[in-house]
Target: ArsR family transcriptional regulator
Amino acid sequence: MKNAGVHHPIFDEIADLARTLGHAHRLVLLRHIADGELAVEQLTQLSGIALANTSQHLQHLKRAGLVQTRREGKRVLYRLADGPIENVLAALRSLANHRREQIRELINDTMSRPDRLENISREELVRRMRNDEIVLLDVRPQEEYAAGHLPGAINIPVDELEERLAELPREKVIVAYCRGVQCVLSADALAILRARGWASRRFEGGFPEWLTSGLDVDGMNYESG
Model:
């Protein structure tokens, strides 16, 4: 039996590096620095990150040994530190592209096989809402959600879903909906959710079917009940 208390220093070091790299702004800065030495002001302009934030992120990268500096007059120039840093950045980009391709394939497969969407009917949806068995996810743009939405629905536009998955609970089934039968936003959302391990279904009728049924609606343009 392996000893769970065995300490592995190398993995601690890897975890520290991963934490340092775990910010999009730092990855952007490293990408620009990989093209050659640059001053803080240049990096601010290229990245679009505020000067104070750029300086702060650069200090994190320097402490982690990912960048080095030299002074040229009054300017401090940043360059990549020694080591296979560009290989690490390339590997991360490759992994991200691979994950995106997996999601794209899942979406395409889902759209070509409607039977795999596991649609939920309005009647079942109402019953499960009353029993508090599900979480409603409105994947339409925020302005459409504000104008009217299913009671208690969480709004995460589908193009923000990957970055905001942590806002959704794992202990309940997520039911995504959008603008109706012809709307693909909820199908895209289902593909993303299932690729990340969330139990999920799709209300095919979406907001239009709910509205025409006379059921309660939340939102500034509609009165509930």
Residues 9-83 form a domain with the Arc Repressor Mutant, subunit A fold (CATH 1.10.10.10). The CA atoms of residues 150 and 217 lie 5 Å apart. The chain has two domains: 9-83, 108-212. The radius of gyration is 24 Å.
